[in-house]
Amino acid sequence: MRDQTSEVLDPVARLRGFILDGGYAGGAKLPPERDLSDQLGLSRATLRKALDALERDGMIWRHVGKGTFVSGDLPKSAPSSAMVELGRQLTPFRMMRARLAIEPAIAREAAVNASGEAMHKMQRAIERAKAATTWNEYEVQDDLFHRAIAEASDNLLLLALFDQLNEVRRAVVWGSVTRQSTKPSPDHSSFAEHDAIAAAIASRDPGAAYDAMRRHLGSVANRLFGEV
């Protein structure tokens, strides 16, 4: 039941976010459907419906026998919506404060309700983030890790809330983030922080999961803004 209901929560937005956050430029070829389905945690049928929707919107085009490609006129952001408009008015600092208020509570619920499949999704995202060869690849897996936690809460309202929060996050103007390397270093602090969150959830320790998520988001916020 958990896997079936999770797919109906805006798979189009998830696919759109994958393309935008993954740095796919106009003309770029997307991974095969099998890989996309695996990375996004969607069934092939649900993925195809999302691809159909983005093709109708003009964001992608498909060629039988060759694959799926990003349109040359790819927008710089997702189509306008109430949540996107909110994101455009929100400062990065306020965005992080909102995450600090909401995501630790979702992690706490995940520690109570996470299934084995949910834990597998978290671990898979952790491993792929550590193996990322670019920052864009890392950020896609980081996004999938946090969404897997929301799915693990087994609460459709919390999952919908997370998806809306994520939609706003993508619309916030973060400015230029200077990277000192082409990919995360092996000692990137988020790796250990993600491990700690997953371990607390696997141990069914709600308090530890809450604290681990709050420490992680606080660490991210401190890197961006200093004390938050």
What does this structure look like?
Helices cover about 65% and strands about 5% of the residues. The protein has about 230 residues and is mostly helical. It folds into 2 domains: about 1-70, Arc Repressor Mutant, subunit A (Orthogonal Bundle), CATH 1.10.10.10; about 80-225, Four Helix Bundle (Hemerythrin (Met), subunit A) (Up-down Bundle). Helix 6 (about 90-115) packs antiparallel against helix 11. The radius of gyration is 17 Å and the shape is globular.
One letter per element, helices H and strands E, the order comes to HHHHEEHHHHHHH
The CATH homologous superfamily of the largest domain corresponds to GntR ligand-binding domain-like
Please tell me how large the radius of gyration is: 17 Å
Distance between the termini: 38 Å
Largest sheet: 2 strands, antiparallel
CATH architecture of the largest domain: Up-down Bundle
Basic shape: globular
CATH topology descriptor of the largest domain: Four Helix Bundle (Hemerythrin (Met), subunit A)
Mean pLDDT: 84
Q: What's the number of domains?
A: 2
Task: Bin the strand percentage.
Answer: under 5%
Category from helices, strands and their pairing: mainly alpha
Give the strand order of the largest sheet, numbering strands 1, 2, ... along the chain. Answer: 1-2
| Multimer state | single chain
**Percent of residues in helices:** 55-70%
Number-wise, the strands total: 2
Tally of helical segments: 11
User: Class of the largest domain in CATH?
Assistant: Mainly Alpha
Spans of 5+ residues with little confidence (pLDDT < 50)?
Answer: 1-8, 75-80
